[in-house]
Each structure stands twice: as C-alpha cells, then as structure tokens.
Amino acid sequence: METLRFQVVGEAFKKKPLVPSTPDERPSAYYGKKVFNREKMYRYLPKNVYEKMIDVMDNGAQLDRSIADAVAAGMKQWAVENGVTHYTHWFQPLTEGTAEKHDSFIEHDGKGGMVEEFTGKLLVQQEPDASSFPSGGIRSTFEARGYSAWDPTSPVFIIDDTLCIPTVFISYSGEALDYKAPLLRALHAVNIAATDVCHYFDPSVKKVVSNLGWEQEYFLVDEGLYAARPDLLLTGRTLMGHDSAKNQQMDDHYFGSIPERVAAFMRDLEIQALELGIPCKTRHNEVAPNQFELAPIFEETNLAVDHNMLLMSLMKRVARKHSFRVLLHEKPFDGINGSGKHNNWSLSTDNGILLHAPGKTPEQNLRFAVFIVETLMGVYRHNGLLKASIMSATNAHRLGANEAPPAIISSFLGRQLTELLDHIELADKDDLLSVAGKQGMKLDIPEIPELLIDNTDRNRTSPFAFTGNRFEFRAVGSEANCASAMTALNSAVAEALVSFKQRVDAKIAEYSKDSKYSEGSGHSPKYHAIIDVLRDDIKACKPVKWETYTKKIQIEARVLGDLSMNHIIPVATRYQSQLLSNVQNMAAIFPADKAAQLSARNMKLIEEIAERTSKIECLVEELVNARKVANKIASEHDKAVAYHDTIEPKFDEIRYHIDKLELIVDDSCWTLPKYRELLFIR
Ligand code: ADP
Ligand code: MG
Asked: Do the Cβ atoms of 100 and 88 come closer than 8 Å?
C-alpha cells in the first residue's frame, strides 16, 4: 500500500540545517522589532506629540489632526531606517483576509530629483475605490467612494519594504465597509456601559477594555500533494477522499511530538510573528493528524483582532517557504476533526480588575456575579446574532459535528458557578456571596507539590464556556475574522449592561425617591445612538454573508463537477477497460465455464464501476440544473437558501460514489492524492 505516487516537495527540508533569522537574539530582544510601538514613538516623536499619542491610545482622546504631520514624520524616519520604501492603508473588508494598496514614499522634489515624502494627510486618510468590495448592497457603484481612516489604537508595522497602517474602511455616508469599524463601535459601547456599572462598586474606574485571546487551529499539507488536489487549491477543502485506514482513532496526535519539518515552520513563524509584536505563547499538535494550534497571550480586543489577521497571512507566507500549504478552512477533511478559533474573552478595568474573575470580598463577588449574569443575559437575548456572527459556509461543516461546539449557543458555567448563581437567585438579599477560588488538591505522591484546581471543570463541547476568569467562545471558525464574533458579543453584553443599569437606577430611584436617578445615564441618548449605529452595521453585513455563502457553494459545485467529469469518471473508466480486456483474455484462453468463474470478481467490479460512474454523471447533471434554477433567484437571501437546500446536499451523494470508486480502482492510476498521503507529514 505504501507507494509514493506523488512527489513530496518538502522532504528536502528535513535534510537542510535550520538557520534562524536572528540566531543570537532572545525573543524578548526582537519582540516588536517591526512595530512602531510606544518605545519607538518615544524615540522618534517630539515629546508633546508622543504624549498626545499616548492619550489617544490609552484614553480614547480625539486625534488632533495638527499632530498628524509630526507623527507621520517620525514614522517615516523609523521606516526608512528599516529599508521601507512604500506605505499602505491596511484594512479588513467584509471578504476574508485583509486588503492593501501600496504607494511609494517617492515624490518629485521640484528640482528634477526625488524625495521620500509621507505627510499626516497620507497617514490619516485615503480613498481606495470601494466599488470592488462587498458592501451588502448599501451603495451602488456610482457612489463608490470609500475612505480608509487611520486607527491610532493599533500600531503601524513593517512587512518587507512596506509600512502598514491599520485603518477602518467606511463609505462616503459613514457606513462600515469592513469588520473593524463595527468592532470599534462595539468596544466603545461596552466600555461606556461597563464603566458605568463598575461605578456602583468603584467610582475611580475610568475605562473598561475588552480582552481577546484567540487560539488558532490549522492544518499543514505538503505543497506537492496540495498542488495535485484541485479541490484543496480552489475551495480550501477536500470535496472527496475516502477515510485513511488510520487517522485520529489512536488519539496519538494531540500534544504529540511535533514533526521536525513542522517544528522548523513553527519556529520561523513565531520569530516573524514576535517581530510584529504578536505575543506567541503556545504551540502544539491538535487532535487530527497534521493539525496544529498557535495561541498568543491575550490582548486588548482590537489589537488582538489585527494580530490574528496578520498571523493568518504570515502563516500562509511562511508555510510556502517551508514547502507547506496552510489550510485555515474549518473542515478540510471529512471524518476527522475540523479547525476552530476559540475566542477567550473578558472585560477588565483600567485599574487592573478582571471583571469576569471571582474576587475575595462579598462586594467583589457581587460585581463578579453582575458581570457574569449580564454577559449570559446578552448571550441569551442575542443568541441569533451570535450564531450569525460565527456562521459561514465553511464553518457550517464543523458546527454540530461531534468534535465541535453545537450549532446552538448555550453556555457552560461549571458546577461551582452554577451553584453560586442558584444561591443568589434563592438567597436573602443580605446573604453574603462567596466564591471559592482555586482549591488545593493533595495527591498521594509526596514528591509532587499540591496542585491548584480550577473552580470550573473543562467542558470541551460548550460553544460558550466560563473558564475561571473569562468566557471561551468556541464556535468561531478557524478562517474567520474574530471581529465579527467580538462585535456581536461585546454589543450584546453592552446592551445587557445598559439595561441592567436602567433597572438598577429605577430601583434606586424607587427607594430613594430621588428624581436624579430616574434619568440616570442608562437612558441617555448616547447609548441609543451607539446601539442604533451598531444595528445598522449589522444589517449591512447580512447580505454580504448571504452572497459569500452562495459564491462558496457555487465554486465548490463547479470544482466537484469538473473533478467528477475529468478525473474520476475517466480514471474509473480506464480501469474498467483494463478489467474488461482481462475478462476477454480469460474467455479467449479458458473454456467458458472456467473463464466465467475466474472473471467473476472482475465482472462485479466492471458492473459496479458502470453503475457508480453513471450515477455520478446523473448527479452532476442535476447539480448543474439546480444551479441554473438557483442563479435566477434575485434575492440574495433566497438564493443562499436555495444553494443550501438544493445544491449542497448533492455534494455528499456524489462524494459517496467517488469514495467507493477510490476503494476499488487501482491505486497506481488514481490521479488525486489520498487522505493517507495528505494527512501524514513524514
Ligand atoms: P486552553 O487551555 O483553553 O488552550 P490557554 O491557557 O492556552 O487555554 O489560553 C488560551 C487563551 O486564553 C490565551 O490566549 C490566553 O492568553 C487567554 N486568556 C487567559 N486569560 C484570559 C482572560 N482573562 N481574558 C481573555 N483571554 C484570556
Ligand atoms: Mg482553549
């Protein structure tokens, strides 16, 4: 069985000695080398400009355009010293991935020569043509103006020779055309709402930030094998392929030792990610063969989102250098685990309190309970929104499958927390709140120190689990932009907190008969304004989602049809012809009875191939016809539903016959790399 039918390109890497790009330095030394971070701002900006920037970043102060020139000058000096010649506004349109258009610093100097120029105007705002990006039909092409605007809360960074400036992308009339503008609005909303609630407990709180620690899962496949699989190449997943005899049933991959070639890739990736300021912390094998995970230390959500987008594109680049291809698709292979991106999320205050962590005093625990309950409230009320925020054509393959969080957003709290909440619900108001922190557990092995046991169990399948000091939103797909889930979650929680404050203020007013509470800030127009804008943003995203869904299924249908007709059926037919001539040869040599007996197995195979190929052909035709019908539907929503109901179900039927053929056709003529070849990096 172990024939190597395809050239494994990356074999050579095992023999090559590894040369780290910065051999003499520790990660702490090159961390952030390519980022215009605080340390560089301090060095390259005038003192007053530096202070203003810090105020903008830390306190959300408005960026004063008059300092933009000075900031741009400092950035340019630093960038040019690092070999940079171009700059780009880096943004996150509603497609996957990021977009960029590079411009050079070069300008005529008016004396026949050139100078490097970069002004505040170029830093702050640009006008890329927005008509080629999805907008959910909110604008037609004749009003294609879109603006990218610098987001000073996420630092600029260098990729190769280009200075990348994180920006939001908005339309002429202010609607979001990207993931980042709604995210920033949601983060603003949760900050205001949570800060107000914190004031019941601690009036000195100035700001509440949302934290995100993502865990990125991915598959690696050898480049040579990848190139021989048009389905992987064009859709990111295998549309066919029989299970490998061995896959993950031995549970021997999870946390297993990392193959040498993969370790080399990971090291290279981590060095480059750390240089870009991504605080990579954890790496390990995942459950499925060839599946791995990378997780950084959590960061403020906006920055963490940018870092995840950056990491995904970095992974693709570094993988190519190691003759791998990285698969970020949620379900690249049938029958084994898919990939997710757990979003560990919490809120914390500017004075360092984690609002989702239990405290030491009853008051702290009351605050803890408020934030836990209101988070659950938000998730409960906006379940549909949260589901929509993580749903995609690709993630749908993983959600609900046995390894992954179910397709309903429910929450797992752990025994102790459930008891605490029950206790609050039933208890007298004056009853004290207590939450046990980590408890000691004595082992019967004297050499081993006492272990600290968390007060939550692990529950791997809950899509939204409380894990001690944070919630883990696990339904997010590996390929997704976390901004979508984070926008939904933070808005949902913001709304719950606003409503909480309104009710508390009303109660206080009732008790105190003090009219000032009845118009508490929970009623203030600023909340309504924020929430209205968010609703608009979310509405605009919806048609984009439908359209993306349809397009993905459309591409898959085409690829599956093509592969069926020009790989599978011809190969199976060729093998069938070989069998036929064998049968004829038998008949020529042996008496009829004997020949029939000897050819019985081949006859059965010939028949089976005939039946399966003709079924495949019929199904492909049905697929094409179903597409023609669906393509005529005008509404993006209805078209997506048609693709889901009438086209996608055919994939499995076609695949079923193809996978059966894979089992019987001679291995040496099967043109596609099989699962056993794709899934085991040697
Ligand atoms: P797991 O055991 O679930 O894989 P890890 O310890 O690897 O969890 O952490 C997963 C992620 O959660 C990391 O990015 C980590 O920094 C992040 N994290 C830890 N505490 C918090 C918190 N309070 N808020 C948000 N993220 C957090
Ligand atoms: Mg986890």
From this structure: yes
Residues with CB under 6 A from ligand 1: 211, 213, 215, 282, 295-298, 344-346, 354, 469-470
Q: Which atom of ligand 1 is nearest to the CA of 295?
A: 14
Query: What pLDDT sits at residue 515?
Result: 46
Task: Look at residue 390 and tell me whether its pLDDT is greater than 60.
Answer: yes
Instruction: Note the pTM of the prediction, 2 decimals.
Output: 0.89
**Which helix (H) or strand (E) is 186 found in, with range?**
helix 180-198
Q: How far is the CA of 679 from the centre of ligand 1 (A)?
A: 28
Question: 653-672: buried (b, 16+ CB within 10 Å) or exposed (e) per residue?
Answer: ebbebbbbbbeebeeeebbb
Reduce the DSSP state of residue 556 to 3 states and report it: helix
Average pLDDT over residues 54-77: 90
Measured in Å, residue 56 CA sits from the centre of ligand 2 at 33
Question: Which atom from ligand 1 is nearest to the alpha carbon of 346?
Answer: 24
Long-range contact set of residues 123-126: C-beta below 8 Å, sequence gap at least 24: 123/68, 123/71, 123/72, 123/75, 123/150, 123/165, 124/63, 124/65, 124/68, 124/149, 124/150, 125/149, 125/150, 126/89, 126/167
Handedness of CA 595, 596, 597, 603 (dihedral sign): positive
| Ligand 1 mean position, distance from CA 210 (Å) | 13
Report how far residue 654's alpha carbon sits from residue 618's, in angstroms, rounded to the nearest whole number: 9
| Number of Cβ within a 10 Å radius of residue 340 | 29
The Å distance, Cα 169 to ligand 1 centre, comes to 30
Q: pLDDT by residue (tens digit) across 583-636?
A: 999 999 999 999 999 999 999 999 999 999 999 999 999 999 999 999 999 999
Distance 342 CA to ligand 2 centre (A): 6
Closest protein CA for atom 13 of ligand 1: 213
Which ligand places an atom closest to the C-alpha of 212?
Answer: 1
Amino acid at 473: F
The SS3 call for residue 315 is: helix
Nearest-CA residue for ligand 1 atom 17 is: 213
Q: State pLDDT tens for residues 24-35.
A: 578 888 999 999
3-state SS assignment for residue 679: coil
Could you tell me if 459 and 442 are in contact, meaning their C-beta atoms sit under 8 angstroms apart? no
Where residue 538 falls among pLDDT bands split at 50, 70, 90? low
Looking at the CA of residue 296, tell me the nearest atom of ligand 1. Answer: 14
Backbone angles phi, psi at 394, to 5 degrees: -80, -40
Output the six-digit token pair for 7.
């050239």
Identity of the amino acid at 417? L
The structural domains of the chain, ordered by start, are 31-178 (3.10.20.70), 187-241+249-437+449-523 (3.30.590.10), 551-678 (1.20.120.1560)
If one compares 405 and 625, the residue with the highest pLDDT of the two is: 625
